[in-house]
Structures are given as C-alpha cells and as structure tokens.
C-alpha cells in the first residue's frame, strides 16, 4: 500500500532546469486538486510559465510524465511555498492532513538529486526520521535517521531535489501529510536534519484565499459517518436513530467537538488518532443516543453533561486505541491522565473490540483506584484519600452497553407494538433512566 500511495501522491518537479519534488492532494469536497511544492523550485517567480512545468511520477521505478491542467496559483512568500490549483485528479487517493507532534516518526518522500541519473534503479527515496523541534509556529524540524552525504557528493548536492517533498506520518497502513520540506538544516548541509513548513499553516493560507479546506476530520461533517454508524441497527430502531441525524448535523460538527475537547477524545491523546473514522462513528452514535433523550442536548451542547436535580455530571467520550478491556484502560488512564478526571465523571468508552464486561461497577473502580492511587499520590503530591475522593462515583461504561440497552428495550414485549414517535418517546425515557443510573 505504501509504495502505491507514494506512486500517486509524490511527484518530481522540473521547471526551466530546476528540479525538485512536490505532492498532489485534493480538497475535502473533491472539487479541485493541488500541487504543493517549494517556491524556490520555480526560481521564486511570480509569473509562472505553466508550459515549462514538467511533472513526473515514479511507477515501477520508472519516471512517467503526468499531464496536469493548471488553473491558478497561490504563493506564500514568507514560507517559500507554492500551491498550484489543478483540475480534479481522480487517481489521487483521499488522504488527510494532520498537525504533527514532537517525537513523531515521519517519512519525507521525494526525488533527491543523488538519484536523478538514468542508471539509478530508483529515483524516489523514502528517508525516515523524527520531529525534534518546532522553531516557530510554522516550521517543522526533522532529524534524519541517516546522513545526507556520500563518498562522491555532499549533502547539499544529494538533498536539493528533496525541496518541495512531503513529510508524512505513517500510522499502520495510513499515511498523513504533516508538512512540506523547504530547506536543509544548514545551507552547507552540515547537519542531518531538514526544515519543513507545517501543512496546517499551508492549509490555513489556502483557506484564506480560496475558502476551501484540505481533508481533515476537523473540517468534515457527521454526514459521512451516517451509513456506517446506523448499519448496526435494525428496524424500528434504525428509523428512530436516523430521524435524529438532521438535528445533529445542523448543530454539531467534529470541529466544534475538537474546539471543546482538543485531542482528548482518544486515548492515548493523539492528533493522528482523532482522524480515525471509528472515533467519529462513536461520537455520532453517542450524539444519537443523547438526541433521542432530548433534542435540546445537541442544540445547546448539553451532551457534555448529564443533568439531574442533585448535580451535573460531566461526560467524557473516549476512543481507546490500545486497550480492549475497561479495567486495562482505566488503570492506564488513571496513571497517566489523572488530572483530567472530574469527580463523579461518566466515561463512555469505545474500544477496537468490544470487551466481555461492558461496565465497571463502583467496587471494581474502587479496587483499581486502590491499586494505583499511592503511585498517583506520590507523583502528584496528593494524599491517597484525595485520589479516591476525586474518583468516587465515577462511572465507566462501554458505549455498546448503551446500544444493547436500546435494542433490548425495543424488543421487550410491552414495546413491540409501539411505533414512531410513541416508541421514540419511551426509548428516550429509558435512556434517561440508564444514563442517570450509571
């Protein structure tokens, strides 16, 4: 998958004798595609002669010319970036941009000058490294795993063709674009690191000029997750859930949730994991449940809390990427994110596989807290009693337990004859009972 992806996305750029690299990406609406590269690969000209641009892809280790129809250009002088607007290219795989984090393992993929000779077996090269610094708000610094110089040429000669190439974060089988390389770490190539421009900064400039976003979960709508989310239900529950969708789409977006929660909707916290489709399917499912309870919950962000006469309990919705049981998750979370827990909080969890036990009773939580509270107390300079007091009445439940409750309720004998709004009303009342009783 990796090679095929880079075959389509990473390109070699030639312009009037200058050689560099670039990446192809389409906007979130699939209306246009874009070639993003370093402006100096075009001699920092403002009047680009499109007829002089040559673009190549590597396919089966051979360079193949690509015909592109250029529509417009955006030049970001401050950061040495050029964005060329193209007609939409159907063969570009849909992939997402992401904000990088310190110590992220990355790959920068381009066409170095050291491999431009016809005798070379390959022309594109994947160089791996680690993000080690952010010198300012838009620069990414990447340490390479290997030196740039060789016996026959220095680093500056070898690496110059990398200008304009993409910096990708590879997560399992998925690649995310996080930046564009613009220069070596030093003009002489003395150090094995490169500087790039954050794709988030580039995307921001594109939006300012064109009012269009590059693919990122933040800018999406819950509409794209409807089919996969509702597929777990059968009638009449499927219909009850589907009628909640317009209210949710109108009032809540992934962006609004991220503005409220940041990346703390996944565990471990990660800018990459929030791009996972399963994260947003879980959120849509949770919003459907709360919307059935009361549509006011999605109209005024009431889904972040559960209200009752005695007190309001905060709700944290989390997708756990590395745990499949609730006790495992809770031990890890308490040990590493204790400061993010509110007294009496309700935690609604989704895991990659549904655990056998979908709820943690209070006694189980108490035992887990007792096992690790001394460690937390030492690290945070708290008394053990303070830890246990803050965790008291906390509830942890897998979201599938709520789904099971909804399915069981609609299948109960006294409810089998109910339909439409009457069934939805009774189901909403049952959801209230369950949530307030957790």
UniProtKB/TrEMBL annotation:
<dbReference type="Pfam" id="PF20280">
    <property type="entry name" value="CTD4"/>
</dbReference>
<dbReference type="InterPro" id="IPR009003">
    <property type="entry name" value="Peptidase_S1_PA"/>
</dbReference>
<protein>
    <recommendedName>
        <fullName>ABC-three component systems C-terminal domain-containing protein</fullName>
    </recommendedName>
</protein>
<dbReference type="InterPro" id="IPR046916">
    <property type="entry name" value="ABC-3C_CTD4"/>
</dbReference>
<feature type="domain" description="ABC-three component systems C-terminal">
    <location>
        <begin position="198"/>
        <end position="407"/>
    </location>
</feature>
């Amino acid at each position: 998958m990796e090679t095929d992806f880079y075959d389509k996305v990473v390109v070699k750029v030639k312009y009037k004798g200058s050689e560099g690299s670039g990446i192809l990406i389409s906007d979130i609406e699939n209306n246009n595609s874009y070639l993003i590269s370093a402006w100096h690969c075009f001699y920092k000209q403002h009047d680009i002669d499109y007829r002089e641009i040559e673009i190549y892809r590597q396919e089966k280790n051979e360079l193949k010319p690509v015909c592109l129809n250029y529509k417009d250009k955006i030049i970001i002088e401050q950061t040495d970036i050029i964005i060329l607007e193209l007609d939409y290219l159907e063969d570009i795989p849909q992939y997402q941009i992401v904000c990088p984090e310190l110590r992220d393992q990355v790959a920068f993929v381009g066409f170095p000058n050291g491999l431009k000779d016809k005798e070379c077996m390959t022309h594109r090269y994947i160089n791996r490294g680690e993000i080690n610094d952010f010198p300012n708000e838009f620069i990414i610094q990447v340490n390479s795993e290997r030196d740039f110089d060789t016996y026959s040429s220095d680093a500056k000669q070898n690496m110059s063709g990398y200008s304009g190439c993409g910096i990708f974060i590879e997560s399992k089988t998925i690649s995310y674009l996080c930046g564009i390389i613009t220069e070596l770490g030093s003009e002489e190539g003395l150090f094995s690191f490169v500087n790039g421009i954050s794709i988030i900064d580039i995307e921001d400039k594109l939006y300012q000029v064109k009012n269009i976003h590059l693919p990122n979960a933040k800018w999406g709508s819950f509409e794209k997750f409807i089919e996969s989310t509702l597929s777990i239900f059968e009638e009449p529950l499927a219909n009850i859930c589907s009628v909640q969708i317009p209210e949710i789409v109108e009032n809540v977006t992934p962006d609004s949730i991220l503005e409220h929660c940041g990346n703390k909707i996944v565990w471990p916290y990660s800018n990459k994991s929030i791009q996972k489709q399963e994260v947003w399917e879980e959120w849509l499912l949770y919003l459907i449940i709360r919307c059935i309870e009361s549509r006011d919950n999605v109209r005024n962000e009431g889904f972040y809390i559960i209200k009752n006469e005695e007190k309001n309990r905060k709700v944290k919705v989390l997708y756990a990427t590395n745990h499949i049981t609730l006790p495992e998750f809770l031990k890890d979370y308490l040990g590493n994110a204790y400061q993010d827990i509110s007294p009496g909080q309700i935690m609604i969890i989704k895991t990659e596989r549904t655990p056998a036990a979908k709820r943690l009773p209070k006694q189980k939580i108490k035992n887990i807290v007792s096992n690790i509270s001394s460690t937390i107390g030492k690290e945070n300079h708290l008394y053990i009693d303070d830890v246990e007091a803050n965790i008291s009445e906390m509830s942890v439940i897998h979201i599938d337990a709520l789904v099971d409750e909804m399915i069981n309720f609609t299948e109960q004998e006294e409810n089998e004859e109910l339909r439409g709004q009457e069934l939805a009303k009774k189901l909403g009342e049952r959801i209230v009972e369950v949530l307030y009783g957790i």
